[in-house]
Design goal:
Largest sheet: 5 strands, mixed, barrel
Number of strands: 6
CATH class: Mainly Beta
Strand content: 35-45%
Radius of gyration: 13 Å
Strand order of the largest sheet: 2-3-4-6-5
CATH architecture: Beta Barrel
Shape: globular
Oligomer: single chain
CATH topology: OB fold (Dihydrolipoamide Acetyltransferase, E2P)
Number of domains: 1
Protein name: Rap1a immunity protein domain-containing protein
Length: about 100
């Protein structure tokens, strides 16, 4: 059984389109359309995948494919990081 503390630390964004991608040396940043999920003082829905994340290559490849194909993504992020302007993502779902 999963504890409620673990369940509370994980949120899904819902299906959204990627509006921008930014690969860099320490990870991969992307932005989503739609309602704000980060701290209201942030000016965008920015999500981050550290290069050390499990399945980094597969997740980033999926996101790049979604972006270039204009597919929707549903991103699962640690909600304790949403107060920063880069919520940390641990998995994604891509749908046409």
């Amino acid at each position: 059984m999963v504890s409620s503390a673990v369940q509370a630390a994980s949120q899904w964004t819902g299906n959204r389109k990627i509006t921008e991608i930014y690969p860099h040396a320490s990870g991969f940043i992307y932005q989503l359309d739609g309602a704000q999920i980060n701290d209201p003082s942030c000016n965008e829905n920015r999500l981050y995948i550290p290069i050390t994340a499990a399945n980094y290559d597969a997740i980033v490849s999926s996101l790049i494919t979604a972006f270039t194909s204009k597919y929707s993504v549903n991103s699962n992020y640690d909600d304790s990081t949403a107060s920063s302007c880069q919520a940390v993502v641990n998995r994604v779902r891509v749908t046409p």
